[in-house]
Amino acid sequence: QVQLQESGGGLVQAGGSLRLSCAASGNIFRNHVLGWYRQAPGNERELVATITSGDGTIYANSVKGRFTISRDNAKNTVYLQMNSLKFEDTAVYYCNYRALVVPSYDYWGQGTQVTVSS
Q1: pLDDT tens-digit map of 64-86
Q2: What 8-state DSSP symbol labels residue 102?
């Protein structure tokens, strides 16, 4: 079992910044990916950014240049720094843990609301 505790969501004006945090605990496999996904009302859940245990990163095109994902291995925590926020970034943001084993498996956080006012 892996537990994911998110924090940092809230209400911000367009152009502002927020930082999300997600602390992972439990049985964390050495090779894994931590990531952020989001889901807006009426939309599918979509990838925002991921970071591997080797610090490889992937970003959605819509957030490149504005969002930065990072991690603190000592704290098993992943961060998402969100700058230049836009109205369309409004969504529930979910932290994800994926163990890189066969078969792989995922755990999800409870989600944190990010609301950007225009």
Answers
A1: 999 999 999 899 999 999 999 99
A2: S
> Which amino acid, 17?
S
CB 57 within 8 A of CB 65: no
Mean pLDDT of 88-110: 95
Cβ-contact 62, 51 below 8 angstroms: no
Please name the residue that has the structure tokens 């490149």: 64
In three-state form (DSSP H/G/I as H, E/B as E, the rest C), the secondary structure along 37-88 is: EEECCCCCCEEEEEEECCCCEEECCCCCCCEEEEEECCCCEEEEEECCCCHH
For residue 100, give the nearest of 69, 56, 44, 61 by alpha carbon: 56
Question: Which amino acid is present at 62?
Answer: S
Rounded CA separation 17/6 (Å): 17
Q: Could you read off the pLDDT of 29-60 as tens digits, one per residue? A: 889 999 999 999 999 999 999 999 989 999 99
